[in-house]
Every structure is written in C-alpha cells, then in structure tokens.
Design goal:
heterodimer, A: Multidrug-efflux Transporter Regulator, Chain: A, Domain 2, B: alpha/beta, Rossmann fold, seven-stranded mixed β-sheet
C-alpha cells in the first residue's frame, strides 16, 4: 500500500528571505515583488531587513506556477481572483500536488441538476418518454475502460470554481454589480463584480481589518 | 458546498501492490475502503419525514398469491412508516393507476391507504416504466410541496416490461436523471420471470438497491427490509471520484455505474446505510514511462445527506504507484486483503458476464470470454489464501455456464455477487445455498 504523507518544509515554516523564496520556486525576486504589487501574494511578514516569507507564500507561488502552466491563457488578474477563492488547505493541496488542478473536471454524471425532478419528468413526458440523448451518452456499462487524458485548459477556471465551491467573477467589466461595504460612516469599500459568499466573507474580513486599522490610528495606545 | 466532515464518510485508498513496470503495461488494483459512521445523519434520526412511493406491478402474471403478498408488504410499510412520513401508492399494468397521491401519515390516512391497498387488482400488460415514473413524479411533487430533501420509490415487478420504455440503457438514463434530482429508486424482482437487466438498470443508476423475492411470501421481507435500509441511510447518491494520471486506463469491478470526464472517473455507489462499510475495487492499467516516476491517484467522495439537499464533499485520499525495474517488481510486497478482495470482485464480474451470455443462450461467448480471463485470473490468485477456492469456483463457472441453466440459478448466482460486491443484505429469511452450488446442478 502507498499512502500519501504531507511533506512539510520546515525552512519555510521558519521563514524565508526573498532570495530564498525566489530560489525555491525558481523565479526572479522581482517577479515575486510584482506578484505582491498585483495582489497575488501577500506582502512579507515584518518589514525591512527582518522581513521574511512563510510557507503560505511558497504555496501560493507554486500554485501560481501550476495555474500559469495549466492555463496558458489565464491572466494574472484571473489567477488573482482564483487564488482568493482557495483556502490555505486547498492551496497547500495544489502546491504539494495531491490536488491536481488540471484534471479537476467534474463528470457530467454528477453535474448538479438545474431543474427539479418534476420539471425533468414533465419534459420527459412532453418528449414522448424519450430520455435525453445528451445524458444517455454518459451512461456506460460497468467494466468499460477508457483512457484518461489531461483536462482542456479552458476547463481550468471551472475546475477551480468547483474546488473553491463558489462562483468566481470574471475581471471587472462594464455593467457589472458593485459590492459595497461600509467601513466607517465616512469610508466605504466598493468592489466591482459578482462574488460568491466565500469571497464576500473575505471582503468583509478585509473591511474589518481596515476598520481596525482606522480605529487604531486614533487609539491612544498607538503612540507611533 | 458543505465541508463539514465531522459526521462524514471516511475513505482510504490503497493499491494491492505499489510498484509498476516502467518498461511495459502493468495492471494493479486500487481499493477504496469506505466506512460510514453509526447513524450520523440517517433519515431515521434526523426527524426528516420519509417521502416514499410504492409502485406495484398489477399485470396479469401477478394475479393471486403474488399480488396478495405485495399488498401485505404495502400494508406492512403503511404500519411501519411514522406519522408525518409521506406515502403514495401506484400500480401499473397496461395503464397506470394512482391509488393514493402523496399522503401525510396519521391514523385516518393509514385507514385510507389500507383501503386503497385492498382495492388493488390485476389487469393487462406490463408498462413498468409508466408506473415507475408516476410513482417518481408523486414523490418529486411532494418534495416540492413539502420542501423535502428527497423522494424514494420502491418498485415491485414480476415481469419484463413490454410496454412503454423497455430498453435498460434508457431506463438507466432516466434513473440517473432522477437520482441527480433527489429521487432514488429501489426495485424488488418477484419470482423467476422479472427482467434483471431492467430492474438492475433502474436500481443501480437510480441510487437504490436491487432485491429478489423468489417466493411470494418473501415480497414482504424484502420490502420491509428495504424500508429499514432507507430509514438507516446515512448518505444518498454517494459518488467516488478518482483522478488518474495521464495515460492510465481504469475500470471498476463489481458492476457500479461509471462515467468519465477528463481525468476524472466517477463511480456511483448509491445510498450507504449507517454503520456500513463499502469497498470499491478499480483495475488500473499503466503504460510505460520513466523509472522512479510516481503516479498519483487522488480520490474523494461526494454525497447528499438524507436530511438535506446539500452536497457534501469528503476529504481527499491518495494512493501512489511508482514505476520501477523488473528486479524491484518481483520483490515487492503484496497487500493480501486488497488482493483477495480484487480477486473476489473480478470473479464476480466474470460471473455476471457469463450469466448474461448464458441467459441469451450464447454459450460460445461464455467460452471465449472465460478462456480469455482464465490464465490471468489463475496467476493473480497465486499466493492468496482463498486463491485455490476461487480458482475452483472459476473452473466450475467455466464448465457449467456453457450449457443451459435454470433461470432461478442464474438469478441466485448473479444476486449473490451483486449483494456481496455492494456489502448489502439479502433480506430473505430463508437461507440459500452458496452461489457455486447452483453450478453443480
């Protein structure tokens, strides 16, 4: 039997410098900086010469590389949105390779039905009792063997959406909805796009952080 | 997506052997071992009412004793269902009669239902599909009307459907579509005349169970047994998703509905009752590659809890194969328990296929098929504690299924493998001989 065991990387847990992090994932430090600027990666822990990067940075960088490799047409903005949907556990899973993104394509057999059983049965009746040929092709007899193949790149986004369990909005476009969160009576956070519950929750957490920061600014304990 | 797995199904994945050849094709068996905790979210403990439709074959062949026992079974269901459960009653022959639309059970409703059962009589041909769909529709409507998470249909039939939709592939497709929408069907085949192909298609793809009632009095036992299993269902529409590396072939042993998309292989396991264990075996063929290369197989379960429409995902499990040179292959250890299970299910598949050809009278096909399997099966059984016994059973199968067999023997043999591959209970109280004894007739 072969069971998977997580391979932890203690050095990363202890903290990596920018050059160490870059070396681990074989990219230039300036690429990492640009990812941070574009919101794909959080900034370093601490500041100045004591700054360091954690295993989460490493996982994120690896996932970015995997996503770029799997979806050659995926833009950094799309990847940023995808990353927002993934939990730390999922990021680690993809980074470590035990969740393989490229093949995360749900079988048509388990595609959630968009109508009810009553709708389906009424449609079946109106079609004279013929079942839908589109799904009939997915009914295979036990014992049938097929060669598996890599998932098409275009299915990457769908795959990650399923992995994240939420809808991922496309990059902002004209006419899309605005999501508004009040930070303080004078400050609001506006985000354009369509977002799933998990993403909205993250935005609310960001808003909470901002609120805390704004409140702390005027706090007497923050003398700096 | 509900990721609460505190009360969830648990699964491990593992291969019978962990090394494969890097120079040529290898075959290994991947075992998914699934355990269901005791009564986590079973319908019996959740307080969610059961939404059941009983669909009874009322064609001419059911006249007399079979119909009387079917009615006794229906009365038993009415008595055992709890207040607030829903029950519909439908019969079919050449046309369908709804004897009772979905009815919320209480004392007065029970009396009306018992009266409806008493009035049930036989007539005409067997439009099984129309009757089944009528029952399914009542369940589906009740789901909507009362905001219930699912509906269940128990379909009783003693004959081949000969009107309406009769093609097992088409029936399977409809069953799968209903399953996706939360309506699950179990089937009870009565006597020797029912079509196992049709009822298996409906129950396997419909997320339910297939039962056999050889004798009319057994109808009551199996219908009430099915009701009990429905009550103890902890997970509905359980699906095992396996993600495979490129250039691997994979097939499921044991006769479960399978589908494939991309590198995802999905096996529909139906409903699992609390406290049960289910083992699924996949035959994996690998091609040549480079030495030392690791092949990852990731799997997880998806299911619906009986008290909600929410889809639940289990945790990921993983197993690996490593491409190695022949010296390492010959010295690698073997997981005996998994190997034995794989051999048993392999034998079960050969039984199923042989029975199918035998029923069609195609004895030459049986011979060709089994001859093709013989050498590989014997080799795989070498070194297994149960290997010699399984090889003897194979030889019995090979010798006997190339001649006509009684329909009852074919049904018993197939049923035994069906039940054992799914770890399901045969609710008939009278014990039958072991399956291979039917080959000695």
């Amino acid at each position: 039997m072969s069971r998977y065991t997580f391979s932890m990387e203690p050095r990363a847990d202890q903290g990596l410098s920018l050059s160490e992090l870059a070396e681990r994932v074989n990219v230039e430090p300036r690429t990492i900086r640009s990812y941070i600027e574009k919101g794909l990666l959080p900034g370093a822990e601490a500041r100045g010469p004591k700054s360091f990067y954690t295993k989460e940075h490493l996982d994120r960088l690896r996932v970015i590389q995997i996503l770029r490799q799997a979806g050659r047409d995926a833009t950094l903005e799309e990847i940023r949105l995808l990353l927002q949907q993934l939990s730390a556990e999922q990021l680690e899973g993809i980074a470590e390779g035990y969740i393989q993104v490229g093949g995360l394509v749900r079988s048509p057999d388990i595609e959630p039905a968009t109508d009810t059983a009553v709708d389906y049965l009424q449609r079946l009746k109106s079609e004279g009792g013929r079942s839908r040929p589109a799904s009939a092709k997915n009914v295979t007899r036990p014992g049938s063997a097929r060669e598996s193949r890599g998932a098409p790149v275009s299915e990457l986004v769908d795959a990650l959406q399923r992995l994240a369990g939420t809808r991922i909005s496309a990059p902002a476009a004209r006419g899309q909805d605005w999501y508004r969160i009040e930070i303080t009576p004078d400050v609001e956070l506006h985000i354009r796009g369509e977002f799933g519950d998990q993403q909205k929750l993250q935005f609310r957490r960001v808003a909470d952080l901002l609120r805390n920061l704004l409140t702390r600014k005027s706090s007497p304990t923050d003398s700096s | 997506m509900n990721n609460d797995t505190t009360q969830s199904l648990q699964m491990t994945l593992g291969f019978d052997r962990s090394l494969v050849s890097w120079r040529r094709q290898s075959v290994r068996y991947l075992v998914a071992d699934i355990t269901v905790p005791d009564a986590p979210k079973a319908q019996v403990s959740s307080g969610t009412p059961m939404n059941l439709a009983i669909v009874i074959d009322a064609s001419g062949s059911m006249t007399g004793v079979p119909l009387e026992y079917a009615k006794t079974a229906a009365r038993g269901v009415i008595e055992r269902l709890q207040d607030d459960d829903r029950l519909s009653l439908v019969s079919f022959a050449d046309y369908v009669i709804t004897h009772m639309e979905p009815t919320r059970l209480n004392r007065e409703a029970r009396n009306r239902l018992l009266q409806a059962v008493a009035e049930l009589g036989t007539r005409g041909c067997t439009n099984l599909c129309a009757g089944w769909l009528e029952g399914a529709e009542w369940s589906a409507k009740e789901m909507l009307a009362s905001n219930l998470p699912n509906g269940r249909v128990i379909l009783l039939s003693d004959g081949h459907a000969n009107e309406g939709i009769t093609d097992p592939i088409q029936l399977a497709d409809i069953a799968a579509n209903l399953r996706h929408r939360g309506v699950y069907t179990s089937a009870v085949g009565i006597g020797d005349g029912y079509s196992p192909d049709q009822l298996l298609a409906i129950s396997e793809y419909g997320g339910g169970r297939m039962h056999d009632a050889e004798r009319p009095e057994e109808i009551v036992e199996v219908v009430l047994g099915e009701l009990g299993e429905s009550r103890r269902t902890a997970a509905d529409d359980v699906r095992l998703e396996i993600q495979t590396p490129p250039h691997t072939k994979i097939e499921c042993l044991g006769g479960c509905p399978v589908s494939e998309s991309g590198s995802f292989f999905t096996i529909a396991l139906g409903g699992l009752v609390s406290g049960s264990r289910r083992q699924v075996v996949l035959r994996v063929s690998t091609s040549e590659g480079s030495e030392g290369e690791v092949l990852n197989f990731t799997g997880r379960l998806r299911w619906r809890q009986p008290d909600s429409t929410t889809e639940v995902c289990g945790n990921y499990a993983m197993a690996q194969l490593t491409r190695a040179a022949s010296e390492a292959l010959s010295q690698q250890p073997r997981d005996i328990e998994r190997s034995q299970l794989a051999a048993q299910l392999w034998l079960g598949d050969m039984v199923r296929e042989s029975v199918r050809h035998n029923r069609q009278g195609d004895y030459r096909a049986v011979q060709v098929y089994l001859e093709g399997q013989r050498k590989y099966f014997a080799r795989y059984c070498q070194g297994l504690p149960e290997g010699p016994r399984m090889i003897r059973q194979f030889e019995l199968l090979f010798g006997r299924t190339q001649r006509p067999m009684r329909e009852r023997s074919l049904k018993e043999i197939a049923l035994r493998h069906y039940k054992s591959s799914r770890s399901e209970v045969d609710h008939r109280s009278e014990r039958r001989p072991d399956w291979d004894e039917y080959l000695s007739e």
